[in-house]
């Protein structure tokens, strides 16, 4: 019974969504790559990534960020979203 309780508590803990914390991995003035965890909900992770990309692109001479692609890394459980910085 104790083993079952431990297993179910671990399953419950892993089912909780991790908040999306965007990390800028690369920026060159024309594009920015934002990394988020695959454990967070994809819609909220993309929204947080878009907001961070907008902030980074506006620091340069560009006005907006447009989502171009996403790469999923199953080894590190991360998504890398590429945004183009456009005028």
Structure report:
The model has no long low-confidence stretch (mean pLDDT 87). The protein is of the alpha+beta class. It has two helices and four strands, in the order αββαββ. The relative contact order is 0.21. It is elongated, with a radius of gyration of 17 Å. It has helices at 2-15, 42-59; strands spanning 23-27, 31-37, 64-73, 78-86. Strand 3 (64-73) and strand 4 (78-86) form a beta hairpin.
The stretches of 5 or more residues where confidence is low (pLDDT under 50) are none
State the separation between the terminal residues, measured CA to CA: 61 Å
- Give the spatial strand order of the biggest sheet: 1-2-4-3
> Which structural class best describes the helix and strand composition?
alpha+beta
What's the count of strands? 4
Report the average pLDDT across residues: 87
What pattern of helices and strands is seen along the backbone? HEEHEE
How much of the sequence lies in strands comes to: 35-45%
**Tally of separate helices:** 2
Give the biggest beta sheet.
4 strands, antiparallel
What is the share of helical residues?
25-40%
Shape: elongated
**Gyration radius, in Å:** 17 Å
């Amino acid at each position: 019974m104790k083993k079952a309780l431990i297993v179910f508590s671990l399953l419950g803990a892993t089912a909780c969504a991790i908040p999306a914390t965007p990390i800028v991995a690369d920026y060159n003035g024309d594009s920015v790559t934002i990394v988020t965890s695959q454990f967070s909900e994809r819609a909220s992770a993309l929204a947080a990534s878009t907001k961070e990309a907008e902030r980074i692109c506006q620091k340069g001479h560009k006005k907006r960020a447009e989502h171009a692609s996403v790469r999923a890394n199953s080894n590190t459980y991360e998504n890398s979203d590429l945004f183009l910085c456009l005028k």
